[in-house]
């Protein structure tokens, strides 16, 4: 499943959502205007002069529009904290990074694997501890402020493969732009519902002292109209919510298959929802507000308001030939034998392939996802798990707490050259004090055993802890990193990637609502930027200019087929032009970004291997363009060291 195509579909969903919402508002305004005209308008008797009702109708329309707009704005602003705010609004609690609970440790391990494999920072992890249903959601404005929330029912009932399938489903929402749309939808629903709430309050307190024929009766008429029209509007808003969500959930299921490279895990989770007494239902009072972003239905299935396709339809899409009677046999089998205890740690289980009736073709939505031509994602998870297991235990523990994570990031930027270390120690001491400087030096010895390819995955693991640092300390960290990497008068690729990646993620996490949205530019509009970025990546992965030129030409053939473009080696001072080019490319449309990534992959694979520098540059470019790392390009496999 193509994440760039999904981002384009989400853009289309956003346009349709706005259009439907505008139509709903117009209908509400017209209905309230009619009530205002009946209650307060001029209705001349025979022979009386007619007076204009235009000022009344304009005032009524303005008040209704303002009420809906302010209500929506208030709700969206209340969620300005991003994914964390949404998770806490449904009573979820954060899962500590250093948790020793086996269930929670398994959950964090799975989320960390999927995050690193997809090239995004590890999100905040939340648990709805009082919810026995099997459900989950991802929320936020961007990958940098995302939160993944699961119910206790997921932990109690799902195997590791099944949990991985659910988490992969939620990560597809993180990567394809659904999360921002989901938060906007929450605001729009709230804005319409505000009218009904106001109408109910008017009926309770308004017109109490007036007569039915006087002003009190008129106020009551307006209150009744607000309440009735508000609830009718909310009814249609719920239909909009369901329609938008259903169209994306099938795509998210297919994306989860692409991530995990097998269908058994996700299908198993859906089957357990089907046979569980609790299903996927939530008990929290405001469950309908987040219904469109959940893994399963928030309550009992209702075809009219369903935010997901029917369970059996989802299962049969994954496993053709599955029959409803199989659920009864599965339920009986689960009652006869207790499930084996889940393993909290260790690499993910091997992909078990596609199950279902042999000989039946896959549905169109999965065609190509499990066929050749797409990098296998399950091996990517295994490589990520191998990288994590190879990390020194002291480092794995250190990156889970804010201050020690800061220490590790500074230690990553230290040079191995003895002549540069005194100057770097002074930079750290001036920024953070002598005690932290000594801690950084001590941490540097542990980093000596770290595989080079594990540097940026370590940054992804540290990100949840780094976000907890005060803003001032985050900015001091970024300034210190800039000084550390420039202490010898030059910046190598590894140093640059470390500083750039942290700056992108920390800046977006501190201001979630300011995270960039999808651009609209076509590829030719950013031609020079594509040429420069591809040249820098080609030069980073090749030992001589002739090889770099060949890799670059392959990239140009991919991006601009048939065009004759002259090779120009990247400048010695490449960092500033590179950053400007990345900012330019971030304004491209999703489909144009896909072409850029395909061109870069041609350059990276030109010599048949991926260098550490190429893997890190690719990870940073994808983060800068706000798109996922191509599956299988996590750098954990065929990397030249």
Automatic annotation (TrEMBL):
Main location: membrane
Low complexity: bias regions: 338-351
Biological process annotations from GO: proteolysis
Residue numbers spanned by region Disordered: 334-354
Topology in the lipid bilayer: Multi-pass membrane protein
Cellular localisation: Cell membrane
Protein's UniProt name: Zn-dependent protease with chaperone function
Protein source organism: Rhodanobacter denitrificans
